[in-house]
Amino acid sequence: MSIAFLSLGSNIGDRVSAIQQAVNFLSGDNSIEIVATSSFYETEPWGKKNQDWFVNAVIAIRTSLSPVELLRVCQNVEEKLGRKRQNEEHWGKRPIDIDILFYDDIVFANEILTIPHKYVHMRAFALVPMLEIKANYVHPVLNKTISELHEELEDPEDVFLYGTISGSNTNG
């Protein structure tokens, strides 16, 4: 079994409910076990600033799925919750977004997936929730902890504590 860290975000409709529903769909998959969840954070948009703010969270999962299989499950959950990738603007608004941040300590890239996520080290909205779950996790390419990456952010977007996922636990 592998450990993966997923970032979940939404800036359309009931943002918190969208993330909760996504977590429920993921936990309903027999090949995925949720092992830790961060709090919810309200976050300034990254990349495209002139849109509504997001609510973001990070979860740690234990899974028997390969990285590509996990990506497909995540994209299926996004579709169930109304995401239509073909109609959306790059870094634009979305009802739900699920990104694989890390998968064990592997480094992997193909035409559809890059692990670790290629922007994770630049995004406060991903690093701040990761701090709650595994602050000492070492980025397998940059060889720095999540805490170190967060400290090195040059111009981080605003990230504010918004609430907790029901039944959340953390393993900092």
Give the SSE map.
Layout: E1 2-10, H1 15-27, E2 32-37, E3 39-43, E4 54-63, H2 67-80, E5 97-103, E6 108-109, E7 114-115, H3 124-134, H4 146-151, E8 159-164
Antiparallel strand pairs: 1-4, 1-5, 2-4, 3-4, 3-8, 6-7
CATH architecture: 2-Layer Sandwich
In the CATH scheme, the class would be Alpha Beta
Assign the structural class, choosing from mainly alpha, mainly beta, alpha/beta, alpha+beta, or little secondary structure: alpha+beta
What would you report as the Rg, rounded to the nearest angstrom? 15 Å
Strand content: 25-35%
SSE pattern: EHEEEHEEEHHE
* CATH topology description: Alpha-Beta Plaits
- Poorly predicted sequence stretches spanning 5 or more consecutive residues: 167-172
Number of domains: 1
Largest sheet: 6 strands, antiparallel
CATH superfamily (homologous) name: 7,8-Dihydro-6-hydroxymethylpterin-pyrophosphokinase HPPK
- How many strand segments? 8
Q: What's the pLDDT, averaged over the residues?
A: 91
Number of helices: 4
Taken from the alpha-carbon principal axes, the silhouette is globular
**Distance, first to last CA:** 20 Å
Could you estimate the helical fraction of the residues in percent? 25-40%
